[in-house]
Amino acid sequence: MINAFLNDIAQRVLTLNKLEQRLHLCKLLDGLALREGASVLDFGCGTGLFAPVFYKRGLRYFGYDIDDGLVRYGNRLYGAKGCVFSSSLGNLNNGQPFELILANCCFHHIDDTTASDIIKGLREHLDDKGLLIFIDILFPENDRSVLRAWFRRLERGAYIRSQKQYIGLVESAFSVKRNYITRSFFMSIRGAPIYNDLLVLVCG
């Protein structure tokens, strides 16, 4: 549990609770106009930093992460708000099929074969009319900044891909309806010299 606590604190301190990403997600959700009570799966949820974005909109939040310690900590933080966390997708049956699945910055830690299997598995958990929001770090091209190179090392992601590679991965099971690139700044400060370019795919 102490590791989960430290992970949660680190995320909140280093990114001001992922402020920019949460604001971006809010805008995305406002554009989707999901019905109240719709079930949402946060795949790779960690300690559930994005949970408030969903439950404050009257959506049923289900968080999945492979790390059982993070899941237990997320449940401690947000379980009283009706959020459900599990380290097994099979334990989230009460929310299925999900009307929305969010996969935020987790696939750059997963190799191609495993990632493809997971993507196909997520399709089975999604409602026929549901959507997948896929967000991940883009491989930087021709970037000579030492600061940004140092920051990316902190991510420890061995599988950061190009836009074309991510789209190819997702299209093994989904149709990409919308794709664009946004930028997440270190400490959420506009104009900061350290950032990650993020690819956003809205898929059905």
What is the overall pLDDT average? 85
Uncertain segments are 4-9
Characterize the biggest β-sheet. Answer: 7 strands, mixed
How helix-rich are the residues, as a percent range?
A: 25-40%
What structural class do the secondary elements suggest? alpha/beta
Number of strands: 7
Tell the overall outline.
globular
Give the helix tally: 7
Strand residues, percent: 25-35%
Radius of gyration computed on alpha carbons: 16 Å
Reading side by side through the largest sheet, how are the strands ordered? 3-2-1-4-5-7-6
H/E element sequence: HHEHEHEEHEHHEE
Distance between the termini: 36 Å
Describe the protein in words.
With 204 residues, this protein is α/β, with parallel strands linked by helices. 37% of the residues lie in helices and 25% in strands. It contains seven helices and seven strands; from the N terminus they run ααβαβαββαβααββ. Strands 3-2-1-4-5-7-6 form a seven-stranded mixed sheet. The model is unreliable at 4-9 (pLDDT under 50).
Helix and strand topology:
Layout: H1 2-15, H2 19-32, E1 39-43, H3 51-55, E2 60-64, H4 68-78, E3 84-86, E4 98-104, H5 112-125, E5 126-137, H6 146-155, H7 163-170, E6 176-185, E7 195-203
List descriptors:
204 residues; alpha/beta; 7-stranded mixed β-sheet; 7 helices
Q: Could you give a quick summary of the protein structure above?
A:
By secondary structure, the chain is an alpha/beta fold.
